[in-house]
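Appendix B. One record, verbatim.
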Amino acid sequence: MTTYAFDLKPCGRLVVGTVGPAGDRTFYLQGTQGRSVVSLVVEKQQALALATGIDELIQEIDEKFPPDYKQETPRTDLQLLDPITPRFRVGRLGLGYDPDEDLMVIFVQEMISEEEEETREPAAGRFWASREQMAGLSEQAKRVAASGRPICALCGNPIDPDGHFCPPSNGHASTKILQ
């Protein structure tokens, strides 16, 4: 049975945010409950995958368990709370739903090396939140991820202001952002 390093049920706030300039940003997933603040490092792709998973799960939940109230527009303008002291870097993410409490849950598991796996279990935790909070988190994650460097249509790599090496162009041309 998994022992959770934290179990925020329910979260008062649930946020995806970044620290640093585009191209050198660190993404965080942060939840609060009362005075407890839990910050975790996530990858940009994990934040986007989480957003996609949340959207799909909300659609499925709404079909099986229609809300008996008018859903409020979720807040997507929440900022990370300082100081940001990450508990760990996330290796695995999962989603779930408790129909008895009408709460969705994000399961997280720490990324650890193969050597560490031999001596200890990765830390794990849960963030519980309403459908509205999760919808807001999804929108915020997509917005934050999109605010970074543009992606090259040819190779899928991020484009720096000075251009980038693009293998599909055979390395002879670099794509630059035009102002």
